[in-house]
Amino acid sequence: MVVQGWQVFTRYVLNDSPSWTEPVTLLLLSTALSLGAAAGVHTNRHFGFYLLGEHVPPLMRKIFEVIRPLMIMSIGAVLAWWSAVLLIDGLDIKMAGAQMPQSINYLPLSIGGA
């Protein structure tokens, strides 16, 4: 909020908006969302589709309970791996408006996926 507040102040009061505020805001937003989603998965408060699991026989429900954490770990590992690959591949490309690599936006996804 501080970065966006600064952008609004400089744009409308000083009539000279800095170019770095938008990329930094997007990075901070994706960081908050990725870490929030990771915390939700860790505490088992993430969204889920329980309709199928509630209407199957008890044996199938037990199988779903075993498979579910494995699937969550697999998806997290794939997200962490491929976002890290994209992060490393784009480190030499500079972001417009900020002195950061273009691929820095993949960093929260790779941390949150892990």
UniProtKB/TrEMBL annotation:
GO molecular function: transmembrane transporter activity
Span of domain Tripartite ATP-independent periplasmic transporters DctQ component: 2-114
Keyword Transcription: no
Keywords, in A-Z order: Cell inner membrane, Cell membrane, Membrane, Transmembrane, Transmembrane helix, Transport
The keyword Repeat belongs to this UniProt entry's keyword annotation: no
Membrane topology listed for this record: Multi-pass membrane protein
Gene Ontology biological-process annotations: C4-dicarboxylate transport
Gene Ontology CC terms, in alphabetical order: plasma membrane
Transmembrane parts of this sequence: 20-41, 70-88
Top-level taxon of the source organism: Bacteria
Predominant location: membrane
InterPro entries for the chain: DctQ, TRAP_DctQ
Annotated localization: Cell inner membrane
Function in brief: Part of the tripartite ATP-independent periplasmic (TRAP) transport system.
Quaternary assembly: The complex comprises the extracytoplasmic solute receptor protein and the two transmembrane proteins.
Family: Belongs to the TRAP transporter small permease family.
PANTHER family per record: 2,3-DIKETO-L-GULONATE TRAP TRANSPORTER SMALL PERMEASE PROTEIN YIAM, TRAP TRANSPORTER SMALL PERMEASE PROTEIN
Name the UniProt record assigns to this protein: TRAP transporter small permease protein
Native organism: Xanthomonas vasicola pv. vasculorum NCPPB 890
